[in-house]
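hi! just following up on the protien thing from before. the input was this:
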Amino acid sequence: MPRTTFRVPRTLLAATATAVLALATTLTTATAPAVAAPAPEAGTTGATGATSGFWACSVPPGYTYTSSRSSYTCSAGSSYPTTEFYVQPPADGLWACTTMPGYTHTGVMSSRTCSGGGSYTTNQYLLHKPVTGMWACSVPSGFTYTATQQSYTCSGGASYTTTQFLLRAL
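and the predicted 3d structure came back as:
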């Protein structure tokens, strides 16, 4: 009996992959916690901004991003994709792709989430408002440290330890 093979057209594979990505994005954004937007700067008027995350072509000042993807949405009709960012205001306990002024980070994780759909890994940072007595991966402005320890917490999953700092407000 002859063997029958079935080839899936590339367009069907691409459509399936796009649908899976859209579903994953929907599930991720639907379960993301709502976080209050930062207050407007002194002397400004108008809306305070988004109350939860949203996809954008750039990261506005005062915000961070928690994911990125390759997309044609921001490419102005060109034939190549650009990076789109899932933008959120910084908050305690948020895994972010960037560190933020006014925050420190207490953990580092290596993942592909921030690499725009790339095959390489980048770091994500666990953001926290600094307080005296907190062990942190960096010493933010307005703080000093009173002790250090070696830990894997801040090394992003690497096989080496990095220094953590016991914070004290100035």
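The radius of gyration is 21 Å.
Residues 10-31 form the longest helix (22 residues).
cheers
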